[in-house]
Design goal:
Elements: H1 15-24, H2 33-46, E1 50-54, H3 57-68, E2 75-79, H4 84-91, E3 96-100, H5 111-117, E4 122-125, H6 137-147, E5 150-154, E6 162-163, E7 166-167, E8 174-178, E9 191-195, H7 201-208, H8 214-218, H9 238-248, H10 251-271, H11 273-278, E10 288-289, E11 296-298, H12 302-314, H13 330-335, E12 337-338, H14 343-351, E13 352-354, H15 363-380
Parallel strand pairs: 2-3, 2-4, 3-12, 4-5, 5-8
Antiparallel strand pairs: 1-9, 6-7, 6-10, 8-9, 11-13
Bound molecules: pyridoxal-5'-phosphate.
Pyridoxal-5'-phosphate (PLP) is lined by residues 56-58, 82-83, 85-86, 128, 154, 156-157, 178, 180, 191.
Length: 381
């Protein structure tokens, strides 16, 4: 039997044509016509004041911290249950990541814990919307206002997902997206920084263009361009932007196909007494509309999770686990600080099992995944 892969990049009908246009033309670097078209598409369809395509979400997170103007010694609150990039983007600038716990159901950062972690050095919180399911952005916004701190959304997994009908990534001062091949839309490696405030635009243009005022020069506003501030090369090459644009133009179909497999899993888990006995169907807060980035089961123990994962892989169903909590990682302990008890992050890391999910998956693939999960649970528990 063919293996069922964990993830496969989506296919888009215009990909080859767009890539061919780039190869035939003469603009291969960043900020070319496809880059501009993809940035415009993101703005027109998802919102925000300006969007900058970047080489990755990791780069977008770094760029957000640069543009925000945080200084060494400042603190940024992050969930422990996240990818290294969320905290690494702070550490590179000499900021201290302060790790807090997530809630035990949606695995999103717990606003009470964020509040507890805030002190005089806190400058921002970086929530991630795990699995493409929104954090409680009203509570985080109230808290950020009361504490005078920024929200930088790590929306790596979130393109097309919403909080109260507004797109994730547009609700904080900055939103950072990933277009890595494992995400709903992907161009191999890629990302985007969404900027909400007019006052951040010029700094963002300089930060992404090696600290120069090249954008002003291209607009004829200065007669030479020069090094004016700190920055890096946060540009996406034109070939990647062309591939990304071809997928953005089909984002509704791609996300809808994922949503229908997500719902198939949810109902399948609900209807299966064997699975429902050990793991609740994945649920969603009333304010969230997911892009179905991840369907996960939270098993009652790490031992069952590990044995079930091994069984699924033996049966060629490529399910997987997820993050190691950052507060317990080598770099997390070296560079960060932990506030409170992080038991939910540890539980999630031990007990989560993510099922295969990609846009071209059929219901018969998903049905086979659920059959193998059922058989595994019967055999192992
Ligand atoms: C929450 C989160 N943030 C950031 C990233 C990094 O994204 P990229 O690979 O585009 O740098 C990931 C990657 O999976 C992620 O899950």
């Amino acid at each position: 039997m063919e293996p069922i892969e964990f993830s496969k990049p989506p296919k888009s009908s215009k990909a080859e044509r767009y890539l061919g246009e780039v190869i035939k033309g003469s603009h291969l670097a960043g900020d070319g016509p496809f880059c501009k078209a993809a940035e415009k598409f993101l703005l027109d369809h998802f919102g925000g004041r300006a969007t900058f395509l970047t080489p990755s979400c990791t780069a977008a997170l770094e760029m957000a911290n640069v543009v925000a103007g945080f200084k060494p010694g400042d603190e940024v609150v992050v969930p422990s249950f996240t990818f290294s990039s969320t905290a690494n983007a702070c550490v590179l600038l000499g900021l201290t990541p302060v790790f807090v716990d997530v809630d035990p159901v949606f695995l999103n950062v717990d606003p009470d814990q964020v509040d507890r972690a805030c002190g005089p050095k806190t400058r921002a919180v970086i929530p991630i919307h795990y699995a493409g399911v929104a954090c409680d952005m009203d509570r985080l916004a109230d808290l950020a206002k009361a504490r005078g701190i920024d929200i930088i959304e790590d929306a790596a997994q979130c393109v097309g997902a919403k909080f109260k009908n507004k797109y994730l990534g547009t609700l904080g001062r900055f939103g950072c997206f990933s277009f890595h091949e494992t995400k709903n839309l992907g161009c191999g490696e890629g990302g985007a920084l969404m900027v909400r405030d007019e006052g951040d635009l010029e700094r963002a243009q300089i930060a992404r263009d090696k600290g120069t005022n090249r954008k002003k020069f291209l607009r004829g506003m200065v007669d030479k361009y020069t090094w004016v501030d700190s920055g890096s090369s946060y540009l996406m090459p034109e070939l990647s932007a062309a591939l990304l644009l071809s997928q953005l133009e089909e984002h509704e179909r791609i996300n809808d196909q994922r949503r229908s497999i997500w719902e198939f899993y949810r109902q399948g888990v609900e209807k299966s007494p064997t699975i429902a006995k050990v793991a609740a169907p994945q649920s969603m807060p009333s304010y969230a509309e997911t892009n179905a980035h991840i369907y996960f089961l939270l098993l009652p123990s790490g031992d069952l999770r590990d044995r079930l994962l091994a069984y699924l892989r033996e049966q060629k169903v490529m399910a997987t686990s997820h993050y190691q909590p950052l507060h317990s990682s080598f770099a997390g302990q070296k560079f960060g600080r932990t506030v409170g008890d992080l038991r939910n992050s540890e539980m999630a890391s031990r007990q989560i099992l993510r099922l295969p999910l990609y846009s071209d998956m059929t219901e018969s693939h998903a049905a086979r995944v659920l059959e193998v999960v059922e058989a595994g649970i019967r055999k192992l528990s």
